[in-house]
Specification:
CATH architecture of the largest domain in chain A: 3-Layer(aba) Sandwich
Number of strands of chain A: 15
Order of helices and strands of chain B: HHHHHHHHHHH
Mean pLDDT of chain B: 88
Number of helices of chain A: 11
Mean pLDDT of chain A: 87
Strand content of chain A: 25-35%
Largest sheet of chain A: 6 strands, mixed
Shape of chain B: globular
Distance between the termini of chain B: 22 Å
Low-confidence stretches of chain A: none
Helix content of chain B: over 70%
Radius of gyration of chain B: 20 Å
Number of helices of chain B: 11
Oligomer: heterodimer
Radius of gyration of chain A: 24 Å
Largest sheet of chain B: none
Distance between the termini of chain A: 39 Å
Helix content of chain A: 25-40%
Number of strands of chain B: 0
CATH superfamily of the largest domain in chain A: P-loop containing nucleotide triphosphate hydrolases
CATH class of the largest domain in chain A: Alpha Beta
Largest interface: A-B, 33 and 27 residues
Order of helices and strands of chain A: EEEEHEEHEHHHEHEHEEHEHEEHEH
């Protein structure tokens, strides 16, 4: 287990930013952290990385208690970007990486390491560039932040909203970088993001948080089962008969403003055959696959009609 | 800690404001003596000035925390040091597994090194330029004077260690560099005012001033008038110039460390 939290809580004044958060990140996971603004995602990340201290509860990082002195050594195995990349804006990319190597106490093969991480994140053009970081685009700064996080060859990388401000090409690059590092180097990831559709392309496990509490922890496979497909049918001259008819054949049927909706795996050719034999003339058929957004909204108390 | 200190020292060195400080150190060192020389020449009192204006007093005055460089140096170094927070790079240090104590200690030592270094450079340049126009002191230079200079410079170093401890404390207690600087300047002026009052009380007193008043006058790091003013120090002066500075530095350092260890960082 890479990370475990035990009733982790954080209070600011009288306001609980986090309350009794229990989550588990196993080795090799790409853990997607999903929640609305102010739900507590960044607070948890700050707690784990040592930027803030917990009011109650604790966590363990690589089996080391978060309150023990040994946690400082455990943190050497992680890399993180919290909110925005922490880079010296008055320095070049290479100088930033040299500074980070200095912070990490790494003195050998520095030039080789710098070239390697810059190539990895697609910024090798900056190797000899005199351009300082304040002139970088947001995407370049994000990538430089990831490069700095990679310098220590971490086992666990924490990314707080890594896709923010990136163009579609940039998002694809970051996503592929994450997948590559996970598959080839076995690096475990904890990624918080609002871009749920992007998260669903990388994460194998999700933690859904709202108002400082974990609402649900779910694996990608379990989510697949939860996000059930549905079919909505509209027929000519219905008069309520279609709903009655389909209820006898299928389990989960409901009348909606767009027609009769059947939730669950439905064989369309079988459905059409049934409707045809009963004399219904099909006007419109819509198939729909529920997504993580729908699942998330349903957990948050919202919903989306098919 | 060693790695952190190397990085912090390097970071300040690479900052444009450090270059600005070095340039100002040279400019003020040159402008002071030459303006004075020009003024005496303009009003035709060069011969008289030779007997009461000496490079020694200019050298020790240049260390003063209320001089141009004495005010500018702490301000600009505070801005540079606080960039670690404004850029968020202090997060890299914590995430990389460095303790809060080492981060704070590295910040304090960096402030001390650059504060003392820049003021020494400025003072030596002032001495160099003023020796071009004025004598060092009224009497011939002897080797015991060299020892006096070293001790006096040592006291001035202690003053800037106190300034560094105060600024290290303020930068972790306040949310912004600006607020830290405002509070520092306020404290500076308060101590200067107190120093003026104690100094006048000592100088203008008809009777022998009390030991307490003398102690207070000597111990005020921000306006102590006896550093470099004579040719030797009594034991009382040595103690009153050293102990309060060391105690206050220790107090500010400890308080700052306590606050930093407890503080949540964004």
């Amino acid at each position: 287990m890479v990370l475990q939290t035990f009733n982790l809580s954080k209070r600011y004044g009288s306001q609980w930013a986090l309350k009794d958060v229990c989550m588990n990140v196993e080795k090799g996971d790409i853990y997607g952290f999903v929640g609305e603004n102010g739900s507590g995602k960044t607070t948890i990340i700050r707690l784990i990385t040592g930027l803030i201290s917990a009011t109650e509860g604790t966590f363990s990082l690589f089996g080391v208690d978060g309150k023990s002195k040994e946690i400082l050594n455990a943190r050497k195995k992680i890399g993180a970007i919290v909110e925005t990349p922490s880079i010296y804006l008055n320095m070049t990319a290479v100088d930033n990486l040299k500074m980070q190597l200095g912070v990490l106490g790494i003195r050998e093969n520095n030039q080789e390491k710098i070239e390697k991480v810059l190539t990895f994140v697609g910024l090798i053009d900056l190797l000899k560039s005199k351009k300082i970081a304040s002139n970088f685009s947001l995407g370049m700064r994000q990538r430089l932040g990831i490069a700095m996080a990679l310098l220590s060859e971490p086992e666990f990388i924490i990314l707080d909203e890594p896709m923010n401000g990136l163009d579609p090409a940039g998002i694809v690059e970051i996503r592929e970088l994450i997948l590559k590092l996970n598959r080839e180097n076995g690096i475990t990831f904890l990624i918080s993001s609002h871009i749920l559709s992007e998260l669903s392309l990388v994460a194998n496990k999700y933690g859904i948080i709202s108002k400082g509490k974990i609402v649900r922890e779910i694996t990608a496979k379990e989510l697949e089962r939860e996000c059930k497909p549905s079919v909505t049918i509209e027929v000519e001259n219905d008069g309520g008969k279609l709903f009655e008819f389909l209820t006898k054949i299928y389990g989960d049927v409901e009348q909606t403003s767009l027609g009769v909706k059947i939730t669950g795996e439905t064989q369309l050719n079988e459905l059409f055959a049934n409707l045809s034999s009963a004399g219904f003339i099909i006007k419109k058929v819509n198939t729909y696959v529920s997504t993580i957004e729908d699942f998330y909204l349903s957990l948050m108390g919202g919903g989306k009609n098919a | 800690m060693r790695d952190l200190l190397k990085i912090d020292l390097k970071r300040v060195c690479k900052d444009t404001l450090f270059l600005v400080l070095l340039i100002l150190a040279g400019v003020f060192a040159f402008v002071g003596p030459i303006l004075m020389k020009a003024a005496f020449s303009f009003i035709n009192i060069e011969d008289i000035a030779e007997n009461f204006v000496f490079a020694k007093s200019m050298f020790f005055d240049s260390f003063s925390v209320s001089s141009n460089m004495g005010i500018i140096t702490p301000i600009l170094l505070t801005v540079v040091i606080c960039k670690d927070v404004s850029h968020g790079t202090i997060r890299n240090k914590i995430i990389s597994g460095h303790s809060r104590t080492s981060i704070y200690l590295s910040r304090f030592i960096t402030l001390c090194v650059y504060m003392v270094g820049i003021m020494l450079v400025h003072a030596l340049l002032t001495l160099g330029f003023s020796l071009m126009f004025f004598n060092y002191q009224p009497k011939p230079f002897e080797w015991v004077d060299f020892w006096y200079i070293l001790v006096s410079v040592g006291f001035n170093v202690l003053v800037y260690v106190l300034v560094s401890a105060l600024l290290a404390f303020l930068t972790v207690s306040m949310k912004t560099a600006g607020l830290s600087i405002v509070l520092y300047i306020s404290a500076l002026f308060l101590f200067i005012v107190v120093g003026v009052v104690t100094n006048l009380s000592v100088s203008l007193s008809f009777e022998e001033p009390s030991k307490f008043l003398l102690f207070l006058d000597n111990a005020n790091a921000f306006s102590s008038s006896i550093i470099g003013a004579g040719s030797s120090y009594t034991t009382f002066e040595l103690l009153s110039l050293t102990l309060p500075n060391l105690l206050l530095s220790g107090a500010f350092f400890s308080l700052g460390l306590l606050i930093f260890n407890k503080r949540d960082l964004k």
